[in-house]
Task: structure prediction
Amino acid sequence: MNLFGIGIDVVEVERIASSMAEFGDRFASKVFTDAEREYCESQKRPAIHYAARFAAKEAVAKAFGTGIGKELGWLDMEIRRRASGEPEVFLTGDGDAFAKSNNLVQIKISLTHAEHYAAANAVVLSGEV
Result:
């Protein structure tokens, strides 16, 4: 395997909380999948979990080298939790197509959050060519 890219992002929790308060479902449904929204809303402090997932998606987009846009949309990535608690990225649509066309074989992510900030990093590996 070869390193394809790395990405990191830090988000102010209040920024996400403000967007959720101001734009509500319009913002949430544009950025987060139904499963992500269900998970975040089940937590004691939903905004901090939304912020961590927002940061994770930004980190993955940076690791892909695409940013969020034509080749990778917000809803093309879903941040899930394995039974162990480890976060993972599930790709669909354009994200899955990009991964396949670039022979991407693994995405590792790490999330963290504190009272005011959430952060994530992503490491993307490609198969040997």
Q: What stands out?
A: The beta strands are 2-12, 77-81, 87-91, 104-113, 117-126. The longest strand covers residues 2-12. The two ends are 9 Å apart (CA to CA).
